[in-house]
Specification:
GO molecular function: DNA binding
Shape: globular
Organism: Aquitalea palustris
Distance between the termini: 48 Å
Order of helices and strands: HHHH
Helix content: 40-55%
Oligomer: single chain
InterPro entries: DNA-binding_VF530-like, SAP_dom_sf
Radius of gyration: 15 Å
Strand content: under 5%
Protein name: DUF2132 domain-containing protein
Number of strands: 0
Largest sheet: none
Length: 92
């Protein structure tokens, strides 16, 4: 066995850690907009979301994909209107 870490970006991450990171980064309203599932939009909680995601493979796959995207894309500061920027500001 080698001491190099695996290439899996989800290695060592539990579903709860993933969900907490997404909620911290986006908040429930934005998370519900990005992944349209009821447990994110109506009375959201970590506990109810974990129950749903553990029983629903397609929803879990979407949450994991959003987490990987979040990790791969550095966050840029919000624009003048306070909304998150989708693209980096122009250089020069």
């Amino acid at each position: 066995m080698s001491d190099t870490p695996p290439n899996d970006p989800l290695h060592g991450m539990t579903l709860e850690k993933i969900l907490l990171a997404l909620v911290e980064r986006f908040g429930w309203p934005e998370l519900g907009r990005r992944i349209a599932i009821r447990c994110f939009n109506q009375d959201p909680s970590i506990k109810s979301s974990l129950v749903f995601l553990r029983r629903t493979p397609w929803a879990r796959a979407q949450v994991e994909a959003l987490f990987i995207e979040m990790k791969n894309r550095p966050s840029s500061p919000p624009g003048k209107d306070g909304r998150p920027r989708l693209f980096s500001p122009k250089q020069g």
